[in-house]
Design brief:
The protein is an alpha+beta fold. The protein has 9 helices and 8 strands. It has 2 domains: 80 residues, OB fold (Dihydrolipoamide Acetyltransferase, E2P) (Beta Barrel); 137 residues, no CATH class.
């Protein structure tokens, strides 16, 4: 059994004395693992970095075996992001979330090109906050938990959408929400439209990560066996906590308590 394809490296872990088990994301073969001989050695270790685009050949005696990879570098995204901690954190988060959430060996014809496009966008220095939030939305959609942000769940309105139901994932206008607004999640413009140009992009990114993070942690993760989200996702969100972090965390805790009470 063998196949050849381009893939994005998601994670690497040592195996034996000098080998590494790598997990990659490909379009046709989905999330796929294999052993790279010499993967922790001086020649291959710099190549096997999260986010790297690789030319991969996988071989195994039987289809359900772990198998081995041979990997040749195509493009090293992480190297282009070393001077920008925010972009590097986003790349690490996307790699970790893909490895965490996607079923092994199921084709990813939508998520693979979207992930590659996100990494290329970040590497060339283009604005990326909206693109990253769109990627998390796509991940939720591809795993069966997509958000409907096109019209108000209560009134059907398509204008004035400002909130998201933490239960249904559907958009709501502030007017329709009324007194229930504090119990709902924010809908920043960047989450609804990746190409939006808000006055405060970092604040919008923080709100967008709060909303997608709710569905990742409270909906997707429990469906995968109550596993906690990867630390890389938490580190990314922490980078966008406002300067008044104590007040922000207090508000987050208050909202979490309200949502937990609603669930009960």
């Amino acid at each position: 059994m063998d196949w050849t394809a381009e893939g994005l490296l998601l994670q690497t872990r040592p195996h034996g004395e000098s080998a590494a088990i790598v997990t990659a994301l490909t379009a046709e073969h989905g999330v796929h693992a294999g052993v790279v001989r010499g993967g922790t050695g001086r020649r291959m270790a710099p190549v096997l970095q999260p986010g790297a685009l690789l030319h991969l050949t996988w071989r195994a005696r039987l289809h359900d075996h772990l198998g081995t990879f041979t990997a040749e570098p195509v493009r090293a995204h992480a190297a282009a992001l070393m001077a920008d901690p925010d972009r590097l954190a986003a790349l690490s988060s996307a790699c970790a979330l893909a490895a965490f959430a996607l079923p092994e060996r199921e084709p990813q014809p939508r998520l693979y090109p979207a992930t590659l496009a996100l990494f290329d966008r970040m590497a060339r220095g283009a604005p990326w906050f909206g693109a990253y939030l769109a990627w998390e939305r796509l991940l939720l959609e591809e795993t069966g938990y997509g958000l409907d942000l096109t019209r108000c769940a209560l009134s059907g309105a398509t204008e004035g959408l400002a909130l998201v139901s933490p239960r249904s994932g559907r958009a709501v206008t502030a007017e329709a929400a009324g007194g229930f607004a504090p119990r709902l999640l924010p809908l920043p413009s960047l989450l609804a439209d990746p190409e939006a140009e808000p006055a405060d992009p970092r604040a919008e990114m923080a709100l967008g990560l709060e909303t997608t993070g709710h569905f990742l942690a409270r909906v997707l993760a429990p469906a995968l066996g109550e596993r906690p989200l990867p630390e890389a996702r938490a580190r990314l969100a922490a980078r966008f906590v406002p300067e008044d972090g104590a007040r922000w965390r207090a508000n987050q805790q208050e909202h979490d308590i309200k949502r937990e009470n609603d669930r009960r």
